[in-house]
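Teaching soon. Got one?

===
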Amino acid sequence: MLLAANPFVNAYLQSDGFGKAIFCALFLLSILCWTVLVYKAWQFSRIRKLSRDFTELFFEQKERPLALQFSTPPKRWKQIPNPYFEIYKTAKQNTLQMLTRSGSESLSPSDLDLIATQTAASALFQGKALEKHLFLLSTTATLGPFLGLLGTVWGILLTFSKMPNGFSSGNAAMLSGLSMALATTVIGLLIAIPALAGYNYLKNGCREYKRELERFMHLLLGSIEIHHRRE
């Protein structure tokens, strides 16, 4: 009874086959939008938490920059990627390889440059990984209004095609077309608005987090250079 009173449900029930397909496409697009939005917001929140935890551990061992273990990360890090952890892992692996090859506890400037290059590549990769699936939100923000517009045009087209010589007959058919036109427009906008807002919010958050990654990377490389630079 409540569903029957819903204008969107009524517009769907009164639309033709193509109109129902547009409604279904908008419904699936809405599910995709909110799934990506909620998951990315949750993932980004957890990543920031893990990064803060790792930074605290690193500062506790700052006098020994290679003292943190990475072969078996804590259990809480296994489900969600930790960019700080991956950057530290890359820097530590390359530093240990260079120290083993040099046979001493000191590194030449060229060794340090190579470590910095590999670490920067890891930081770049981790930054790109944060933006994974965000394109779905931008696509939804663009596609939603267009699907709504398609439903609008189709509904108006049905209205005029079912219009007889006047408004005396066929009013129900014409109203169903107008109802579909308005409903698809509203649904398309309701999908696009949160998709666009969420995309801009997450994109800006990724941009700020990339800056934090760069700061941590420079801090890590500086600490390694202080302890292992060859005089």
